[in-house]
Amino acid sequence: QVQLVESGGGLVQAGGSLRLTCVASGKIFRINGMGWYRQAPGKQRELVATITTGGSTNYGASVKGRFSISRDNTKNTVYLQMDSLKPEDTAVYYCAYTETGQYTWGQGTQVTVSS
Q1: Most buried of the four, 29, 34, 58, 97, by CB within 10 Å?
Q2: What gap in Å lies between CA 114 and CA 13, rounded to an integer?
Q3: Segment 30-71, tens digit of pLDDT
């Protein structure tokens, strides 16, 4: 079983930056994917960014060029650097861990961008 702990959310003005961190612990598979999804009030959860243990990344269309995902495999940690934040980025951000088709989710961290 895998546990995820997120940190780094908060309130920021439009145009500002935040960095989210997610640490995974427990039974970590050597080959896995980690990433971030978000859910705004009244909307479905959507992809923000994912990264594999090999470093392959995938971004949601709305964050390309503004957000950057990275990971430290030695620490089982994934980071999301969010720049040029917009009010529409306001959401609860969830860390995700996946292997063999199974997903584990973090508890979520609130990101609020004021205009």
Answers
A1: 34
A2: 5
A3: 889 999 999 999 999 999 999 999 999 999 999 999 999 999
